[in-house]
UniProtKB/TrEMBL annotation, chain B:
This is Sugar ABC transporter ATP-binding protein. Residues 8-243, 253-496 form the ABC transporter domain. The lineage of its organism: Bacteria, Bacillati, Actinomycetota, Actinomycetes, Kitasatosporales. SUPFAM superfamilies: P-loop containing nucleoside triphosphate hydrolases (SSF52540). PROSITE patterns: ABC_TRANSPORTER_1, ABC_TRANSPORTER_2. One of its GO terms (molecular function) is ATP binding. The gene is gguA. Keywords: ATP-binding, Nucleotide-binding, Repeat, Transport. It holds the Pfam family ABC_tran. It comes from the Bacteria. It comes from Streptomyces macrolidinus.
Amino acid sequence: MATDTLKSSTDTGRAAVLRRMLSDNGALTALIVLAVAMSFLSGDFLATQNLLNVGVQAAVTAILAFGVTFVIVSAGIDLSVGSVAALSATVLAYTATTQGLPVWISVLLALATGVACGLVSGALISFGKLPPFIATLAMLSVGRGLSLVISQGSPIAFPDSVSRLGTTIGGWLPVPVLVMIVMGLITAVVLNRTYIGRTMYAIGGNEEAARLSGIRVKRQKLVIYALAGGFAAVAGIVLASRLASAQPQAASGYELDAIAAVVIGGASLSGGVGKASGTLIGALILAVLRNGLNLLSVSAFWQQVVIGVVIALAVLVDTLRRRA
Amino acid sequence: MSNPDELLRIEGIRKTFPGVVALDSVDFDLRRGEVHVLLGENGAGKSTLIKMLSGAYRPDSGRITVGGKEVRIQGAQDSERLGIATIYQEFNLVPDLTVAENIFLGRQPRRFGFIDRKRMNSGAAELLARVGVDVDPRTKVRELGIARLQMVEIAKALSLDARVLIMDEPTAVLTTEEVDKLFRIVRKLREDGVGIVFITHHLEEIAALGDRVTVLRDGRSIDQVPASTPEDELVRLMVGRSIEQQYPRERGDAGAPLLKVRGLTRAGTFHDVDLEVRAGEVVGLAGLVGAGRTEVVRAVFGADPYDSGTVEVQGKPLRRHDVNAAMDAGIGLVPEDRKGQGLVLDATVQENLGLVTLGRASRAGFVDRAGQRRAAATISEQLKVRMAGLHQRVGTLSGGNQQKVVIGKWLLADTKVLILDEPTRGIDVGAKVEIYQLINELTASGHAVLMISSDLPEVLGMSDRVLVMSQGRIAGELAAQDATQDAVMALAVSAAATTNTAVKDVEVSRGH
């Protein structure tokens, strides 16, 4: 098409930049609207302590969701991250507390567990040609089962040195928030700057074109699911350190929150689209909602309903905006 | 003013998209019982115009009258009610439903609320007979080849009682034989009084089928001429300048063999294929659709496996079924299905150009983004890719520019042997010539090109040697000076005559 595209619009200044940023990013607009609404409805919402709480509540979901972002950008899906998180935390607690291994070895083992789970899912998908939905559904069950087997169904205390991850630095900055930010930065760098990140977009956008351009799609998928598994392990450790124990039933259902966060953040389930910042915003939206509804003493049952409606609305608005 | 034979009239239509004027003061009319060809380069506005008629777009200004009455076409339903049916290049059929179900989709005859299959199938059979295609209405659409899919689309249009039938490049995907069949059907429809808007890039089809021609250029209707207008004149009208030579092949001396294939076989698909491509040479691979040409080059490139045989590049054997080995040895493949296999449509021009070199541009896992941008800028300028910028989505480029991007990504990778599978399909004349010139530049600098094309004049015009495939075998080789359309066709159907099996309906269903 003979395109003489209009040069960037004439309006200048901060207002224009802000307007463009908001219109480019429906999720960010939604987050701001939500936060403003909550601050009017509840005087406690804007208190520093409460905002940090929101951050802590968002952290585990966000870290899981960062990992899932890799998978969704490459047009896959990972249902297993909640279970893998619980399994990794259980491995850490079991090896450190029950078996008495040095804590740093236990941490490495926990991370390795997450990566190994991801590799198994990836192998089933790449070489077994299973649909990602099925492969990771299987891993969801296996991961949960193994963490129950190892812990024999009851929580195991977390080593104190690791539990410190659940506390604060300088008495105010919660470590989970810090970890979330670091993992978010890593995600952004991986997606934008690295080979594996760029291949995620290519594979998600058109797998056959990627393959015929010399991208080793199968091998890349292994790495992608392994990354998601590794992120799940980090999330599991953060969650367990807040609870000061590894609980085999922890993080159950979190995979759906993670997927919701990614999708609210503007990623497409058909692949090729998605950003770390979007996922972070998606996770924050979920956390702000839960926190705000708690402050407003909305019953937990109704919270579920509201969250469901918000997920649908967020994605609906985004879809309509894109179509326009 | 209303002529009783006039089905459709468009006056002064204008349509703009943000930043682009797609159509401006376009006039067009269609009479009962005529084939009116819509001619223009890609991006000239043909698609936009027909989308106005099918209700996908609404004009900003101008009038559309149908049967003398001014109408507003707000959507597909309006267009259907006015008796306008459109057959797009990508068919709108549901693969897992039967032919009859597809024809009557959404309007299946019902009895007591249940679908009356008997009536539906007999209705479909009647329509298919009218189109002249021998297909059981109970066949699943998935099992049909491209030619028959198109016939089913035509039958569907007839079932809607269409008086205006719009066909968007219907012949682009058909073999010569299938085109003849399509023409017979179109002529029959014309006799029945249907008005047909026919879009094609093949100029010879205009004289063969058309009555009048409207030429679009840069969103304007330039002229309306009779279909008997000489091709040179049509080209001049279309591109606004005369194209000196349609196939500007400059032949040089062939050098050492770069690609050597011996005895390549995949049971049931291709057998004992030998071929050789030398530096500085263009080898054409001709044959009917379904003869196994695409399958062979995909196997050579490592995209698909083969059972036996060898592939050597510059004397070194390649590992079987390994795209990366082929790439490292210097082979590049520009696949037949540009959108499905060549491009990541939602990614930018820059991303697509850098796809093959992504690995090489990475150090310790990090991509050299600045280097990638520089390379993309250089090559897109060299190939004259017309775009708003490197960050334009590649899906929004015209076909010719998309193809340049696919070729460009291989040029960036220092490809020595470039395999082009239908490189100019669906590309307008101007962009075609640019691609031919690019092929000339490549061979002049010592590259080798292996080109598959179903466009016979193109194969003959651009190749130094022509290999003709038939039924999975190389049926023969012709030097440039001996290659005529007749000679090639004789070889292309040769094996069919000797083995005498039912090859008339060699149908290859393509996954889209």
